[in-house]
Amino acid sequence: MTSSSDSGGVAVQQRKVQREQDAKDRAAPSKPSSKKAVQAGHRPEPENPMPAQHLKKPGLEADMDLQPRFKASGYLGSGKLDGMVALVTGGDSGIGRAVALLYAREGAEVAIVYLPEEQVDAEETKRCVESEGKGKHCVLIPGDVRDPAFCKRAVDETVQAFGKLDILVNNAAFQLHAASIEDITDERLDLTFRTNIYGYFQMARAAVPHLRQGGSIINTGSVTGLEGSPQLLDYSTTKGAIHAFTKSLASNLLDKGIRVNAVAPGPVWTPLNPADRQAEEVQDFGKHTDMKRPAQPEELSPAYVFLAAPSCASYITGIVLPVTGSVGAV
Q: How far apart are alpha carbons 110 and 119 in whole angstroms?
């Protein structure tokens, strides 16, 4: 039991320590808050302000004033995915393009799914993937992941082209801001959910019969699924659903030796966002992160390699990996 005299001694000690810190605080010069973007990679990445540009949906990377960086010039492949086959939805641009490229660099064969309107971007991705190594072949599969029949066909075409399927990356997405829940019509809600969560479910359902032990599914979630977003109500809801789907499917497929994980990006410079916001708003895109800038796709793609490679992540399943440019995103 603590006596009253002991309690008084503790209070005296606490106040003494407080006075000492107060004196240090008064003597220390005030530190202005830093507004400089943080650079922690092998080369500086673009900083705000980003180009003031508004794209028509679905948004072409070829039309962006500042081309997203996806080639990861500092990343050297080491055969982590040798002999494997990957199918990437939304693989024509943005994160999907960067992932397809690094998968090829790590030795995988790659097929990409994209909307027919994005053919220009898809052809460029194919060119870049096939330049990663002699004999590399990239299969282009245009179509809409909202259609379950197309999802099955996309998987079947990949297996026909390469003989098997080892990795599915669910990445295709639709995003559009709204100031109020009243602005989100049934049509818009249906479009967002059928693209972002139905599409993921349908692609996984089609892929699972072909995946073998050591295979994996990687879903693209979002920081909005972790923290919510006042102006992306439907989009952030689907991303939260993707995180739950990831964990549930990981448990469901565990006995088969198939791993399921997700990456939750923060703001990334891809066509998705200039096709969402007005031009003047795009200038500040990513500025609110702790790093005070958006990520480039090449800063996300190594996480997808890590989660796909059995040599790196054979003991990891059911996680949502935040790559957000901020501290403490969980």
A: 16
